[in-house]
Each structure stands twice: as C-alpha cells, then as structure tokens.
Amino acid sequence: MRNVLFVCLDSVRYDTFEAADAKNMKAIGPLKRTHSIASCTAPSIIAYMSGYP
C-alpha cells in the first residue's frame, strides 16, 4: 500500500515557492507544477478531493 500526502498551499505561486529556501518542504519529495481548477480555494480543494481531473 502506498502512502499519499496531499499538501495544499493556498495563494502561493510555483515559481516563488521554487525559489524560496524551503528545505523541509522540498525534502518531502519532488514538486509537481499543477494548475488550479478555480481561482478561489474552496472549489479547488473540493475538485481535487473528489477526483476531478
């Protein structure tokens, strides 16, 4: 069985986070550049938790 960890960072741009000194967060695993389905938090979280592509 695989363990899965979802980390949701709200209002953080990928390029800004990638340039930041966030060693502990980056130690969790590789970053994957993704895009949100909505421009606000609630619909985006509901979408990825329900399996919406």
Task: Tell me what the structure shows.
With 53 residues, the protein is an all-alpha fold. It has a domain at 14-50. Helices cover 38% and strands 0% of the residues. The longest helix has 9 residues, at 41-49. The protein is flat and about 30 Å long. It comes from marine sediment metagenome. This is Sulfatase N-terminal domain-containing protein.
Mean pLDDT: 80
Q: What general outline do the C-alpha atoms trace?
A: flat
Estimated helix fraction: 25-40%
- Secondary-structure-derived class: mainly alpha
Q: Could you name the ranges where pLDDT drops below 50 across 5 or more consecutive residues?
A: none
* Strand and helix order: HHH
Please give the count of helices: 3
C-alpha Rg, in Å? 12 Å
Q: Describe the largest sheet.
A: none
| End-to-end distance | 23 Å
Based on DSSP secondary structure assignment, what is the total number of beta strands? Answer: 0
Give the amount of beta strand, in percent: under 5%
Topology:
Elements: H1 14-19, H2 23-27, H3 41-49
Tags for this model:
53 residues, mainly alpha, 38% helix, Sulfatase N-terminal domain-containing protein
Could you provide a short overview of the structure?
It comes from marine sediment metagenome. Helix content is 38%, strand content 0%.
